[in-house]
Queue: 3 jobs
Job 1
Amino acid sequence: MWLISVVRGTLSLLLFVIATLLLGLPLIALALFKLALQRSPHRPALTRWLDKIASAWISINNTHQRWLLPTSIAYDGPQHFTRRQWFMLVVNHQSWVDILVLMRVFNRQLPYFKFFLKASLIWIPVLGLAFWALDFPFMRRHSKAQIARDPSLAGKDLATTQKQCERYSEKPVTIISYLEGTRFTPAKHRAQASPYRHLLLPKAGGLAFTLTAMNGRIASLLDVTIHYPEGRPSFMQYIGGRVGHVTVHARELNIAEDLLGNYTEDPEFRAHFQRWINKIWQEKDERLEALAHCGPSVIKHEK
């Protein structure tokens, strides 16, 4: 078994590298071209091609994962989505494997994916350029202490988010947000004194900013819950074929007009929005608790 895992892991990693080289080179070339055409009317067309390359990269990796790995992904949720509308997708975060699972379940089912990223990631050589070219939103959040020291920072978070979201106004996308902000670990859970059994505390501000900045274009929130019956896996465990089952639950929630407002300056709206998120998180926690007791027997449909 150990030798089989090593062979699988080596082959999987090799195929990831080959796919990245084959599609990464044209992606970076187009990214540099896009960078040079800051005010050109051709930039939207370049972005569409960049999105197609990224989607093709995901599809190739999904294919070799299905061929090589014994992992079965059980999906319970909506079966058909329209790619003509905008989605906000929120999901619990336990492992780097979460991203691969999301890509396997939802690639080509939803509009092109855009991940929230920390602003500092734009400076990573090559990858930062690729993230920028794919219009991933880079978020810079100012703390209350920073704003207290420099009041001119007040409102800049929302202004930055609005500027990031302007590029999505004409083309439907799926914006993916990990509301916990980091991967779940028992140590982080204890440090936060989180009231949830399987989740860290959700950070609602970035989501509120984005929904408001999109001016009502995002009408649906896709609430996704990922459960690993055998425990949280590492990336190497996954590509080595040591993950037997993954369960993915999804539900589509309507985003009402009362969920759009000034999160920073309106305490009443902020409390209302936080109550909405906390309710979603409580239900997600209960779902994870039920899955922990039921295991993979809850499977209704395998994607």
Job 2
Amino acid sequence: MSKVSTYLNFPGNAWEAFNFYKSVFGGEFLGDVVRMKDMPGASDSYEIPENEKNLIMHIELPITGGHILMASDVPPSMGFNLTFGNHVSIMVEPDSKEETDRLFNGISKGGEITSPLQDMFWGAYYGTCSDKFGVNWMFNFYTK
């Protein structure tokens, strides 16, 4: 069966970010949380710096409606140049107005509310924010 997941890259704080997301959405991480030191053949291709061995290579967390949030840390030593931008948002469509409020208030804590939750012309209770890690979120609960 086809599915869509959201994949995020972090500059070394994926573990902190995903524990925060887990505190908001609940649930458990899927499968093993893979660290850089767990990569098969990692030492064959290059030496992982000691301060990067516990960084996240891959992590997964189901959030709502079967959607899976995934992530990695992307250390510069592996040739990555991470730049956060405004080109990715995660759309969450909860089952109730109360759940929308709970999730929005949780994920925006320590971040920035860019559009407060409000009733919109398309028949939804909608708001947007960026979390404390710079990830953009959209919340949309259809009231009609």
Job 3
Amino acid sequence: MLRTDCTPKRRSRHAGWILTLASACAAEPNYTPPPPPTPDAGFPPEPDRIGAPLSLYLEPVVSRPADLAIELEDGAILTAGALGLALVDTGTVTALGDDPGPIRAATPLPNGALVSGARGLYVLSAGQLQVSPLDAQLPGAPLSLLTVPGRAGLEVWMAGDGWLWLWRGDQLSDVRPGALPLSAPKLAYGAAAGGRSAVWVAAGGALYALVVEDQVTRAYPENLTAPVRQLAVDARRTLWVVDDAGKLRSRRADDVWRDHDAVAGVRSVHASLRSDEVWIETMTEMWRYDQTEFRKVNNLPAGRVLSSASQGSVLMGDQDGLAQVYGQRAVRLTGLKEGGLLLSSAAIQVRPVAAANVTTVTATLDDQAISVSPSPWNITLDPALIDDGAHRLEVRVAYSDGESATGTLRFSHYEGPPPSWQADIAPLFRDRCELCHGARGSARILDTPALWSAEIDSILLNLRTRRMPLPPSAPLTEAELGLVEGWQAAGFPAQ
């Protein structure tokens, strides 16, 4: 068990954040070290199912060299390479220069991103790049960055060679995990440890989970037989790791590790809390796992996978540019943020993958037909013609080969008061969620509006797919789901 206790020094406002800059304080270790690994212990093999080969669909993003790319919350893409940083938003490229130097890591923030370069830590906000006020407080530029939801709001984990810092509850604290290693650390979030969503650290040949509650950090070391090269977590909270021998393993909610022998010689694994799809690369192959089967890619793209993105896609880049890669045809809808609030008339652009082969585009709003303008396809949403509440726009694209793809956009509109935590979401939580996700439950804690707002994408994914709530509770009705969507769209009002 690890404990921290920092005294704030000063407060600073920067890029829309209130930051308390705290003095450094080292965590005092009090934990049980992992048992020594057992040679060739292995884990129960997963009965991997191999599906038919998979053909990918590529959508070019930008022709600039790309060796790092992340998708931001508003759908824009931040990319870095030999020409420096750039922000790509619906085809518009904004060069951000090379002030941070070669980029080491980046992570999305509300309305922007946190970027670590060789010259320090920077904040991207409103299209502008500035030095972060946290930069002067850190021992060096982070090698890994991670944003995670917390009880008091967003938390940011920053790790360098031999150090680990946490920005949490307006305080910056040194949370080095005692004697556990921090050499070349890699971070991932979401898989459970000790019944709580944890930050997972792979460093110095070890793998362990950290759970912070109040001012106590609990460490849960794992006993693996080989050092972990990379780790990721998918929407089902499964932890995926690749070890130095190229073996792929997963750890699901039952805390049981499984070996996956379908793919050998793995170089990297990529997953996201927003998607069920897991992407796996070897030196010569690429595979996708969709929670039912592994499928080998038969048209291997150039470049390498840089990160997971929306709609189960990945961003792939090399010196020739960056592309968004899909395992199936998809339809992107831009012009209004997913889960957004419609305040004025909006033109929704329909952007199908493989647009040259599209024959027809049709759309419905709440299951009622709505008109679509000819190519380039657009849909006008007029709030004067839309009732209060949550709404669902669905666009169906038909292709010349007889195949089709569907895109959806969920949004809300209110002339009157929108749903609030006190009046709508808290009663729903107490009735349908508290048994598992309350203070006495066995699942991750979700008993505050801050936790709900921080994890809203994961919550809505589980509610829409009816994974939650678990029986004997019934799935949410469309009206109940609409309350959660409307609360998100309205900016999470308290009352």
